[in-house]
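Cont'd.
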Amino acid sequence: MKPNRFWLFLATAVVSLPATAHAHAQVGEASGFAAGFLHPLSGLDHIIAMVAVGLWGAQLGSPAIWMLPVTFPLVMAFGGFLGLIGVPLPGIEIGIALSGVLLGAAVMTESRPPLYFAAALVAVFAICHGHAHGAELPPGTSGLTYSIGFVVATGLLHACGIGIGTIHQWSYGRLALRALGGLISAGGVFFLAQAFA
Amino acid sequence: MTNGKLGGRAALVAIGVVLAPGAAEAHLVETGLGPVYDGIAHFALSPEYCVPIVGAALYAGLRGKAQARSAIILLPLTWLIGSLFGGLPLAPPLNAPPWLMLMLVGGFIAAEVPLSVRASSFFTGAIGLMLGFSSGMATAQYGQFIRPALGSTAAIFVVTALAAAFANATFGWTRIAVRVIGSWIAASGMLLLGWVLH
């Protein structure tokens, strides 16, 4: 090799030297949020129960309309926490299906129990839903963004329920809401049959 | 070999060395717009920093005008002080656990804990100091921390002012919305704790 070509080759080699790449230091940030956001939307049994909580809150009015969406994510997260650390809870699928049956029935019958009873009922079901989600968390995503996405999606499902529930102020709206409660309850019965199958 | 030829070859290699790529540390603080914008991006794209900061500002706004005014000054100031100390070479490796920050801030908002102006100022100041310290440590690993700290401090001033003003708005629904957001923040923290222990 001629000396000039040798130096040119050497210079080109130096330019092309790859340095250590530390790209993607924050792994799984975006995918974590997307996975967390989509997780509560991935099962119809979860969706109908979350929407039913919002519908029932709208029917019950203040303070239930805001107290239920404030307490549900916290209790659900506690259920998720139990699922994540591996605390077993038997009959979770039955509890999730029952949440659809009973919350739908509450909307259908315009049931108005004392606030503490409604909150306790919703809390029990929130633990079931949270535990199921916590036990199914996918590996390889950012825990923080997954958690945020998961909670935001759940909260938005409640907000959808509350938004739909505002039709309660009209007489035909009340009827439509009760019919929707019946549909949710029927869906819950279907999932309950599946849970026992 | 003549001196001219030798000099030309040495220059060729020197140019090669100069143009050699450095270590690629993308996706943390390097936006290509300079260190000030890197600091802003680092804050905005790191939920472990921006969510508790927004939460602390919301809490201050929820508690009243005096707390909100205090937070607008204290949060950026303590963040800056924390960032500068966190970037020092001999800074102890202290790191505020994100789950704790989220549960603390979210719980305070959801329950609307009735702190006095002084206690609320201490709370927001402590949050700013701890998170700023963590952020300073993170940005210092990439060579510089003073200008990124100034950028993130400016962003925090704006975010704090907006969030506190929103939470302090006189519309009835904003208070409910802020408390719901607080419960979401606390719930995220609890799930994150489970994730950490998983």
